[in-house]
Amino acid sequence: MTLQEVWIRLSAVRRLDAGHAEGIIRALFCQGHYGPSELFSCGLNAEQIEDFRNINQQWLSASLNWLEGDSRYLVTFGCALYPPLLAQIPSPPLILFAEGNPDLLLSPQIAMVGSRHYSHYGEQYAQVFAGGLVSSGFTVTSGLAMGIDGISHKATLEAQGKTIAVLGSGLMKRYPSRHLMLADSILEQGGALISEHLVTAPPLAANFPRRNRIISGLSAGVLVVEATLRSGSLITARYALEQGREVFALPGPLGSPTSEGTHWLIQQGAYLVTEPNDIAEHIGSGLTWFPTLPIPERPKAPRDKPPKASEAIICAQECEVELPFADVLANVEYEVTSVDVVAERAGQPVPEVVGKLLELELAGWIAAVSGGYVRIKRASHVRRTNVLI
Questions:
Q1: Would you identify the family this protein belongs to, as annotated (predicted)?
Q2: How high does pLDDT run on average in the chain?
């Protein structure tokens, strides 16, 4: 039994923690035996042993044969290609079948989702935001579904960007069939298709809500472009909140059913966005204070374009030190925020917070106004990092 087969068999085992699976893999592969007694000694119960041993043999063989093709990968939990953000979610997938460019899984991603039944407004702004996110250096992740998902993938490709499609079916059963050519285009332009299901798995209805947890889990934030109150994209937004991801929503025309879901999200606390830079600014709003140390003069290479937001997220200099009181600054909004609210959010005593607010005001980060404080700027000597605040 190959290591790939062991991973695939374990992925069919119900109620198996991903971290526990890693230990089982090591133990089994070292022993070289996969009988009931060995599986039991690794901590599997009788039902789980049945799952491991009775996996559909045709589906298993088809998946192993599929993996022999070019640009096809089995990304296993804990391996170098497994996305760190995805590993942090509750119930991360044990394996991912990937086709295309697997390195994209490690790139900074924003998910774009929305209703299958979309308006002209939703189509227009999905294109605007996809192009803007590409310009900021993000990979756009979505679900290859009809409607806003497909529009987002296409607009990303038209902007010469990279996109990841997360499927609710096996990669040999791409769904929907109307997007077969789109899936090919994603691969041709350096994107990726991924699925946690065996490659011959059909597109069952139960697969899609769980697929959504992967879309949000891969991403630093989720943008809901357009959604009715019954849209599946609200499931993705719920997963994002549970996973600690940012949720962004595009406001739409009043009275439009396809904007009722996004308006509801905004009422629940999602970030209202009106342009792509709103997302880039927010995702890249981790702050790092540069110490005032003398730096030798060096010739500057010409730069035609400003740094991308995604570069700012993943790049940091060794001489950087954390901004003092970032935990307090994170709770001061661009609208008036009272001292009591800041203290409550930060979980710190009011007198202590008052002192920190004063220092932040003197440093030029916030301003005292009637009723509290407002955040006013980000100075040029501050750089964005991967700390979300």
A1: Belongs to the DprA/Smf family.
A2: 84
Please give the distance of CA 323 from its chain centroid, rounded to a whole number: 25
The two tokens of residue 257 are 């059913």
How far apart CA 87 and CA 92 sit, in angstroms, is: 6
Phi, psi of 289 (to 5 degrees): -90, 130
Q: Is 348 exposed, middle or buried (0-12, 13-18, 19+ CB in 10 A)?
A: middle
Beginning with the edge strand found earlier in the chain, give each strand of the sheet holding 139-142 in spatial order: 72-76, 95-100, 192-195, 163-166, 139-142, 109-113, 221-224, 246-249, 271-272
- Read off the DSSP letter of residue 300: P
CB 318 within 8 A of CB 389: no
Q: What is the pLDDT of residues 156-168, one digit of tens each?
A: 999 999 999 999 9
Q: 303: pLDDT confidence band, cut at 50, 70 and 90?
A: very low
Straight-line distance from the first to the last Cα atom of the chain, in angstroms, rounded to the nearest whole number:
47
Cα distance between residue 112 and residue 239, in whole Å: 14
State the amino acid at position 33 in one-letter form.
H
Q: Which two tokens stand for residue 154?
A: 């296409």
The fraction of the chain above a pLDDT of 90, given in percent, is 56
Please spell the DSSP secondary structure of 32-98, one letter per residue.
T--SHHHHHHTT--HHHHHHHHTS-HHHHHHHHHHTTSTTEEEEETTSTTS-HHHHTSSS--SEEEE
Tokens representing 130 are 């996809």
pLDDT tens string 266-279: 999 999 999 999 99
Q: Are 137 and 284 in contact (CB under 8 A)?
A: no
Per DSSP bridges, beta strands 321-322 and 382-385 are unpaired
For the purposes of burial, counting CB atoms within 10 Å of the CB of 185, is it exposed (0-12), middle (13-18) or buried (19 or more)?
Answer: middle
Q: What is d(CA 324, CA 320) in angstroms, rounded to the nearest whole number? A: 12
93-113 pLDDT, tens digit per residue, is 999 999 999 999 999 999 999
Question: Using CA atoms, how far apart are residues 199 and 174, in angstroms rounded to an integer?
Answer: 9
Neighbours of 95 (CB within 10 A): 24
This prediction's pTM: 0.73
- Strand bridging mode 246-249 / 271-272: parallel
Q: What is the CA radius of gyration of the chain?
A: 23
Residue that the structure tokens 């035996």 belong to: 33
